[in-house]
Amino acid sequence: MKTVMVLTNVTGNEELDRQRAAEYCRFAAHKGNIPLSPYLCFHGVFKDELAGAVEGFLAERLVKNVDEVWVFGFEQGEARKKREEAVQKRYGEKGRYFCHPEIGRELLLCAMYSEELIERLEEMEV
């Protein structure tokens, strides 16, 4: 199994941001990966004025230790091409971009079938 870092846009709406990060982590798990979300792991853990810097530092260290970096967004058309290029430039071969509207149906299925995921993960243990 690969370890995948899941990156999402931060909108400032903590409930929505957590929901999307969790949704994308389920998607990665259903694809047979171990998902890690810096947002879910670090956001809100550090309460002082340097919290953002600490979160960023930890996320950068995590990038070095994962197999892939999956970036999720909503860009389409020319904006999507630019975002994909930016992901490749920043993360190299590790980087992949996923457009939420294009994987929406899969995201819904991932939320519904946890039993299937457990079976899949058990099979991967061997």
Helix percent reads: 55-70%
CATH class: Alpha Beta
Based on DSSP secondary structure assignment, what is the total number of beta strands?
4
Give the termini separation.
11 Å
Major sheet: arrangement of strands: 2-1-3-4
Mean pLDDT score: 88
Along the chain, the helix and strand elements come as EHEHHEHEHH
Description:
With 126 residues, the chain is α/β, with parallel strands linked by helices. It has 6 helices and 4 strands. Strands 2-1-3-4 form a 4-stranded parallel β-sheet, sandwiched between helices. Helix 4 (77-91) links the parallel strand 3 (68-73) and strand 4. Helix 1 crosses helix 5. The chain is globular. The N and C termini lie close together (11 Å).
Topology of this structure?
Elements: E1 2-7, H1 14-30, E2 33-36, H2 38-42, H3 51-65, E3 68-73, H4 77-91, E4 95-99, H5 100-112, H6 114-125
List keywords for this structure.
126 residues, alpha/beta, Rossmann fold, four-stranded parallel beta sheet, 4 strands, globular
In short:
This protein is α/β, with parallel strands linked by helices. The chain has helices at residues 14-30, 38-42, 51-65, 77-91, 100-112, 114-125, and strands spanning 2-7, 33-36, 68-73, 95-99. 61% of the residues lie in helices and 17% in strands.
